[in-house]
Amino acid sequence: MIAYYTKTLYSIIKNDVLVLPSRMLVFFFIVAIICLPVVSNDPYLLRIIILACIYAIFTASWDLLSGFTGQMSFGHAFFFGVSAYAAALLNRHLHFPPWASIPIGALASVVAGLIIGIPCLRLRGTYLALTTLSFPIILLGIVHAFPDITGGELGISGLDRICRSRIGTYYIVAVSMLLSIATMWKLTSSKFGILLHAIREDEIALRASGINTTRYKIMAFCLSAFFAGIAGGLYAHFMRITGPSTLEVALSFQVVIWGVFGGIATIWGSAGAVFILFPIMEFFRFWPEFRMLIFSFIIIFILLYMPKGLLPWLRDQVEKECPRCKKKNISFRKTCRICTATLG
Amino acid sequence: MIFNIIISSLINGSTYALLAIGFSLVFGVARIVNIAHTAFFMVASYCIFLCTNILGLNPFAAMMVTIILTVLLGLIIFKIIIDPLREHEAAVLIATVALAMSFQETMLLFFGGVFQSLPYLVTGNMEIAGIRVAYQQLLIIAMAPLVLAAVWIFLKKTRMGLAIRATSQDREVANLMGMNEKGIAMMTMAVSVALAAFTGAVVVPLSVVHPHMWLHPLVMTMAAVVLGGMGSVKGSFIGAYILGFAEALVVFLIPMGAFLKGSVALSIMVFVLLLRPDGLFGVTFEEER
Prior knowledge:
The complex is a heterodimer. Chain A is mainly alpha-helical.
């Protein structure tokens, strides 16, 4: 039994994973994420990776809504902030443990998704982007106006840790990151994902084909809000403080930038971008004046020369598509690995 | 109290209107959502600060120099960054966000995060119904309709204006009729940036100059433009005054109102959009569905 599974696993790794650089990269990335605490116990490094995991969930959720469905959201921090505040209030005042407050926070964020999603059904393009941008600012004003409940400028501090030990926290965050990203990836490569693509490309044509686009758009809003909410709850409990910074315009823009840097409409691209950019930004901390400047120049450069995003661009460099069976192949192969057709 | 609210809402409204006209113009003609519009306003304010407080020019000369320099900057940015991306709406949004951030960081680098102030263009003040009103404030209130009228005349009476209106109605057909569509987009960008710089000279003496000053006007300008309907200069002008009035009302009448002013203005915008998805005077384009 065990031998059989080991053999199957071995053949999957050998025949499906190790044939393409992109798959190898994903495989080694997962292995690296899981093995990191075994190799290093540096609290600073773990902290960076944990935050990168949280932001990776957040950015992937933005990609699900804006990249796939084309509902350009410039206020994604709303979902993050709603969930972070919900989790913080539940934990601080009702003493809910993190394993309860994070999912409830995510559900609160789904409600927020409905609140944004239903009015936004009629809006398109730039109107939608600017309307979504306004929601976190509205909430931010309310947060500042009622400092007794929300803590105002200072936020709500003194939340419970996710887990007592640092390694435990790391694993909880990392595993929820891997699970969330895998779920979103799976969802978007299913029939549901194709419908979302179609909504972005031509909504009227889709409606003419008898598909209830309203339902799918609301579903996209809710799913995206749910995952952003998980990220927000994890963030609140990891930082042990929820402040106005979780609702700021800067965070909304940041997530858009990560998403575009990594490649729109590819879940893996936007998640990967966070793991590239976030540690680089930490690395530039010794040079703080130039950090955001370099960051914005990188973005403009990427937009001008790699409009699909960095990671899809890299993927196109190392892989090419077989003209006959449309499977990906590593770029130095002369013939397709599946159907042996000559590659152009 | 009532007079206070009126003056304050007129000043707010005029500020947003001055910014919104430029923002709306460049969107209506070139279909560019220039998030960096108020960042140009911020850069212009710093340029004026440099000219008056460090080089010692008088405010009017500083204003002229600033308008020319800012327009040059705007054209270079348009040529290098915005023009190659113009076909992708989302890419332009994101590129201009990045642009605005890079302006902010550059200014932070050169001038630091301290609050600076600019000299008034006109000094002195007068008393109306028991409220002290500076001439600079009256200048702002007068400037918004004047600028609107100037833009109106430019659009309606000149050949260039005719070309701009034609392009805003249908880019492709205008191009087919032999108009230099790219040149017109550049011209519109120049006018819009010049308006931003001019607004900097007129408005900023009343407040302070600092690298983060673009964010609040940006949000309010965008709200005004969306409220009035994107691409409609008249609509954004009216939208700006509605929002300015709402802001003043909230600040004066509600305790903790200063925190809620953005919220209320944006709630009005969201509410209007619920009823009319294209804003009050929105222009819809058939081919863009």
